[in-house]
Amino acid sequence: MRRLKQESNHDLTVDGPHLAAQAIRAGLVDEYQLFVGPAIVGGGNRFFPGDVRVDLELRDERRFGNGVVYLQYHVL
Predict the structure, then answer these.
(1) Taking a C-beta distance cutoff of 8 angstroms, is the pair 47, 73 a contact?
(2) Distance (Å, rounded) from C-alpha 3 to C-alpha 53?
(3) 21, burial (CB in 10 Å: exposed 0-12, middle 13-18, buried 19+)
(4) How high is the pLDDT of residue 15?
(5) How many CB atoms lie under 10 A from the CB of residue 49?
(6) Under a CB-based contact definition with an 8 Å cutoff, are residues 52 and 44 in contact?
(7) Among the listed residues 23, 25, 30, the one whose alpha carbon sits nearest the alpha carbon of residue 3
(8) Number of folded domains that form the chain
(9) pTM of the model
């Protein structure tokens, strides 16, 4: 995955909890774009891997009329 990032001329997107967790652990993620909705659903996969700490800086936020919030963080 690291080689793919180095050789790409474009931004790469990683989705899905398992693949994203591997990219986060490998230090390949430099930006997080999150949409947070006004509902809590129990169960399922963790949003972030529990064995990694990443310091983030909030770069953008947008609030929508339906209660959804967009957050953009850059890795420090």
Answers:
(1) no
(2) 23
(3) buried
(4) 82
(5) 15
(6) no
(7) 23
(8) 1
(9) 0.81
What is the pLDDT at residue 1? 66
* Residue position matching structure tokens 């050789």: 7
CA angle at residue 22 from 56 to 59, to 5 degrees?
20
Q: What are phi and psi of 61, to 5 degrees?
A: -150, 145
Could you state, in chain order, the average pLDDT of each consecutive group of 10 residues for the chain (76 residues)? 74 85 90 92 84 96 98 97
Place of tokens 């809590």: 40
29 with 75: CB under 8 angstroms? yes
CB contact set of 54 (below 8 Å; sequence gap of 6+)? 24, 29, 75
Range of the domain at 30: 2-75
Specify the CATH number for the domain of residue 20. Answer: 3.40.430.10
Angle at 13 between CA 76 and CA 58, to 5 degrees: 30
